[in-house]
């Protein structure tokens, strides 16, 4: 049997595995609202079950029939798993409007994903057994071929998802590539005859299955929901649903945004819109950042000359254009409105325009992606683009009866803005204002400005300002918040203190298990991980164990380095969700190159793990100045991990390829949990850099 067909088999396994990973990531993100915390946990689930599958598969000595059955099981289970993730709310028996427990959702995702992820790891190890039977390609080369399949699937899925391809069709493509590789390996006429029919069936069935599955997803949110429109994009899903009346509800990635009606009732949007415009004595230009198009009709009632609106996903604009709301459609056609579909922070940084007001809507951040607009670095960028008397405004939930944990969240943002602006005020009306000019927060002042401009709205009357900015409540709020400002940390790109405080707040809302999980995360300290890594140096005195340990520690360091790159990319460039496919593909390409070219067991490859320390330090010091460099560094990190695997395989004679693969995945799992889910939130990027560099040094010692 030709070695090229066996090589294609490993390419097919890698392609199907990466396709499965992309689908499970995106579906799980929708269940967990796209938080980086969810990213770490989902990645940990993938790596953990993949490692278990690899270890079990390594026990197989003659694997042709086992491989065929396992490949067929993956093809059958992938669409089932996708659908189960979509109807998770029904399976968890959640009521309409009930917030899911993070812990229960994570456990559900872990259990549902187990079969397909296990099979992906299992297929690689069983494939090595097949390889020993028919071709005996070196294990390092098989590792590289699997990585090449990952690269191809990552690049193709990124391109297809950008075009709006649905997940069932993407799953069908992944299964087709694996099926073709198996058919060519067997070289049996009936397989060649059946393969085209299988391809056609999978592709044709993907469309009705996707449609039925999406409708089931939204019925799991509320049995009365009827899906009107769904738009896929590289940033996720934008959906329009209705409960049968005239009102349409818009959701982004499963999170409610706003509602519209044909007549355009917008009472809730009117309050923050008019309060924002009246915070400035005479605004002529406004930059609105965030997915709050329901505010546009009310904002445009003011005599401003320019309104720039920035939101990342162009799919939202496509959905808005189809909504039957006359006030909203009139606002979208207003000549003063300019809509920009791009990363907001990069847009402001690169713009030559200045504004009277820059407003950030959406509330305090719970993810690092959102946090980019609430850091000291962003405040300095925004300040350079404000006119004289300009105001930077944030939507913040504020009430006089706020609990201590809520007051501490507001205090973090207040202190961060005070480090940049001369005047910062949290208001009882739901806004936090920052400016170098005095800020008047008075119902009388706001009402006077509203009347002087001749603004008229059936959704708002100026007398309402007296309830929005009740003076006694305003003084009490400012007194309570100021008590926590002195001890509050600054919120920065490298240390997302506001995300940390938000996690503490959310952990108290849903369940006791969530509270315990967040408390455990906050107890993790840098020295805990440094001591643990140092203890692994004891494996140096065990000849074979130290090689397995080196691969595991290198896997830990490699994924931690990749997480540093991802977070820095998100913090400085933005839109990691769009670039995630390419970043992952480059890391896998590095794995393939490292495994392929690390044939020399001399001095260079003895120090390959130390290259991970260089990668992470370069990313931390130079990455913020060049997004392109971060792409290159992610490739280099993968190269170092691939080189370690290749060298370890040669040391052990190649027969332990499956066990080494499992060690690699096991180490990466630990990094996903400890680094991706906890340390980056509790201690910041600099702590992750220190841990990654230490792990790289330990792996170097073990490989000597």
Could you explain how this protein is built, in words?
This protein has 704 residues and is an alpha/beta fold. It folds into three domains: 1-220; 265-503, Rossmann fold (3-Layer(aba) Sandwich), CATH 3.40.50; 524-704, Growth Hormone, Chain: A (Up-down Bundle). The chain has 29 helices and eleven strands. It has helices spanning 3-31, 36-57, 64-86, 88-91, 102-134, 139-162, 167-186, 189-221, 267-277, 296-299, 314-320, 326-332, 344-350, 368-371, 376-383, 404-418, 443-452, 465-468, 471-485, 497-507, 512-523, 526-535, 543-572, 576-597, 603-606, 610-622, 627-652, 657-682, 685-703, and strands spanning 226-233, 236-242, 248-252, 255-260, 285-289, 306-311, 337-341, 355-360, 386-395, 423-426, 431-435. It has a seven-stranded mixed sheet with strand order 7-6-5-8-9-11-10, sandwiched between helices. A hairpin with a 4-residue loop joins strand 10 and strand 11 (431-435). Helix 1 (3-31) packs antiparallel against helix 2 and helix 6 (139-162) runs antiparallel to helix 24 (576-597). It is globular. The model has no long low-confidence stretch (mean pLDDT 82).
